[in-house]
Specification:
The chain is of the alpha/beta class. Helices cover 24% and strands 28% of the residues. It has nine helices and 17 strands. Helix 1 packs across helix 8 (191-201) and helix 4 (91-107) packs antiparallel against helix 5.
């Protein structure tokens, strides 16, 4: 690749017309704007949409990522902007890499985040390899996150708009992937700016609502678990922290850590009860007062580290961590236990922490993401 040419808007020393970009198109407004924007700038754009599950079922699933209508919308955008578009069948890969683990983790009492696994194991792995096979110079997505060049190479940073920031779902992006990926929307101040661009390009998806649901979960989550894991909805006991039976339930799969409503057992006087633990082996739902939900120490595994220095180079680090996508990062101490495991001490206890959730590391002052891992004990 020539080095004497000025860098284009994607940071590559090539003219846009000589730069091939594969755009991961979900059919929504964000990825459609990315594709249209790059096409207008003169890049050699190829749109790719993944069919991740049964197309017939997808057509009836509204409000989800990559549903049947979304595939149709992505194709129409590509036709209108005059660039090639391909639909790839990744249904088997998605089931094996994401759905099956989701079912197993949920039934084991964890609170999994399948969207992260989808990015990690499908979109930023198999799709990225497909982009390389198409001789692409880079792959662009509609995610709201920023890629910035630092002293040691590309860095991952939160989006300019904190309300749209998707860093929680992209912490497992590796340095090698980050070198190939581009996020053209991360610097925009708001989603309204994205929709303005969509209207300017005349895209049919300009006013399309955002996707909200986990794509493969139908209206009744429990029905999916029954199909994937027969016997998953076996009844059991609801007990307090001392093991006293307070009632009965119709299946552990109906409950999540921190749940208060729908227990059917009332509270202890003026003190409501919350789900504090799920024990699938004994089919027990353990409940307790709100203070029993408070957690200060976490064990985190499968860590993806994006810092400049080796993860184990310091016995501890001051960071901020986010353990749910809807919560702001909180101060914490990060103590490496190995190259991929750590203890995280929260300065202020958090409520409702559950195994299976992600724990994402941020710099204490600034926007950089240092990676993260998966909570295994809390």
């Amino acid at each position: 690749m020539p080095k004497d040419l000025p860098l284009n808007s994607l940071g590559l020393p090539k003219a846009p017309a000589d730069t091939r970009v594969v755009v991961a198109m979900s059919g929504g407004v964000d990825s459609s704007v990315v594709a249209a924007m790059l096409k207008e700038e003169g890049y050699d754009v190829i749109g790719v949409t993944l069919q991740l599950y049964d197309h017939g079922a997808a057509l009836a699933k509204k409000g989800a990522c990559c549903a049947g209508q979304d595939i149709h919308d992505a194709r129409r955008v590509a036709e209108a902007m005059n660039f090639p578009h391909y639909v790839l069948d990744y249904e088997n890969t998605f089931r094996e890499a994401v759905i099956e683990e989701f079912a197993d983790a949920y039934l084991a009492g964890a609170t999994p985040v399948p969207c992260i696994r989808c990015n990690e194991r499908v979109k930023f792995k198999d799709l990225l390899e497909t982009a390389r096979d198409l001789d692409a110079d880079c792959m662009a997505t509609g995610h709201y996150i920023q890629r910035k060049l630092g002293a040691h190479g590309p860095e991952l940073h939160s989006a300019a708009d904190p309300m749209r920031d998707q860093s929680y779902f992209l912490f497992s992006t590796t340095p090698e992937q980050l070198a190939f990926l581009r996020f053209p929307l991360g610097h925009l101040p708001s989603k309204a700016e994205t929709r303005k661009l969509a209207a300017r390009f005349g895209l049919i998806v300009a006013d399309k609502p955002d996707s909200q649901d986990i794509c493969f979960v139908p209206t009744e989550l429990c029905e999916r678990h029954r199909k994937l894991r027969p016997g998953a909805a076996d009844p059991g006991e609801i007990v307090d922290l001392a093991g006293k039976v307070l009632g009965h339930h119709k299946g552990v799969i109906h409950y999540t850590i921190g749940q208060r409503r729908g227990l059917g057992i009332g509270g202890l006087g003026d003190h409501p009860l919350y789900v504090v633990k799920l024990d699938p082996d004994t089919r027990r739902v353990i409940v307790g007062p709100k203070e029993a939900l408070a957690t200060r120490l976490l064990r985190v595994a499968e860590i993806n580290w994006l810092g400049d220095e080796p993860f184990e180079s310091h016995p501890e680090r001051e960071v901020s961590v986010r353990i749910r996508s809807t919560r702001a990062p909180r101060p914490a101490i990060l103590r490496p236990l190995s190259a991929t495991t750590a203890e995280v001490e929260l300065i202020e206890p958090e409520e409702g922490v559950s195994p299976g959730q992600a724990c994402v590391f941020y710099e204490t002052e600034g926007s950089r993401i240092f990676g993260g891992g998966w909570i295994v004990t809390a």
